[in-house]
Amino acid sequence: TQLLEQSPQFLSIQEGENLTVYCNSSSVFSSLQWYRQEPGEGPVLLVTVVTGGEVKKLKRLTFQFGDARKDSSLHITAAQPGDTGLYLCAGARGGYQKVTFGTGTKLQVIP
Amino acid sequence: DTAVSQTPKYLVTQMGNDKSIKCEQNLGHDTMYWYKQDSKKFLKIMFSYNNKELIINETVPNRFSPKSPDKAHLNLHINSLELGDSAVYFCASSPSGAGPGYTFGSGTRLTVV
């Protein structure tokens, strides 16, 4: 059973377009992380959100943690080819903050 | 300076063999992990060590045995390799518990033939 469902699974857009990736769960998390993974590399942490309703911005990327701490979204403004990659959300909960990863969203930005 | 380094990057081996993957972190983190990424890119935790103590041991076959000689190292030994073990294995570390987020190594692609 997947605890964290991401949508869409695949996304192919033109450079300059905006997009939103969703990460949904029925479980409450104490924190939620977003990663980007490029082929042949490990995931790289983009952001961690810890407070319900929290919004964090990283240049053209905006991350939001749901009020109930069960879901999150990642919005990219004016996507660039360098944004191409696999985006993973991950929720932490319980002792030692065990992390469960989402199902992933593969983004392709076409020049 | 690589923060989390794992070796080898690629490993091709025959069924039934025993192999090891090594991981080292120079971040001073207390907690280290092994994750398995399948062909659909889903990441699943296998083990976690905090200061050399095993704290997470998911449903992983006994053929997989982690070993942490000190808090900067976490190695993974796999006995009697099977075709289904083929995957990318990632080592990761975090300051203390995974809440703040992980630093991952670049992965070891294991292919069992």
Please describe the topology of this protein.
The complex is a heterodimer of chains A (111) and B (113).
Chain A: E1 5-7, E2 10-14, E3 19-24, E4 31-37, E5 44-49, E6 55-58, E7 61-65, E8 71-76, E9 85-93, E10 98-101, E11 105-110
Parallel strand pairs in A: 2-11
Antiparallel strand pairs in A: 1-3, 3-8, 4-5, 4-9, 6-7, 7-8, 9-10, 9-11
Chain B: E1 4-7, E2 10-13, E3 19-25, E4 31-37, E5 43-50, E6 53-57, E7 64-70, E8 73-78, E9 87-94, E10 103-104, E11 108-112
Parallel strand pairs in B: 2-11
Antiparallel strand pairs in B: 1-3, 3-8, 4-5, 4-9, 5-6, 7-8, 9-10, 9-11
Describe this structure as you would to a colleague:
The complex is a heterodimer of chains A (111) and B (113). Chain A is 0% helix and 55% strand. With 111 residues, chain A is mainly β. Chain A starts with a strand and ends with a strand. The mean pLDDT of chain A is 94. The radius of gyration of chain A is 13 Å and the shape is globular. In chain A, strands 2, 4, 5, 9, 10 and 11 form a six-stranded mixed β-sheet that branches. Chain A has a five-stranded antiparallel β-sheet with strand order 1-3-8-7-6, with no helix packed on it. With 113 residues, chain B is an all-beta fold. In chain B, 0% of the residues lie in helices and 56% in strands. In chain B, the strands form two sheets. In chain B, strands 2, 4, 5, 6, 9, 10 and 11 form a seven-stranded mixed β-sheet that branches. Chain B is globular, with a radius of gyration of 13 Å. The chains are: A mainly beta (111), B mainly beta (113). The A-B interface holds A 30-31, 33, 37, 40-45, 48, 50, 86, 88, 90, 92, 95-101, 103-104, 106 and B 4, 31, 40-45, 48, 50, 55-56, 90, 92, 97-107.
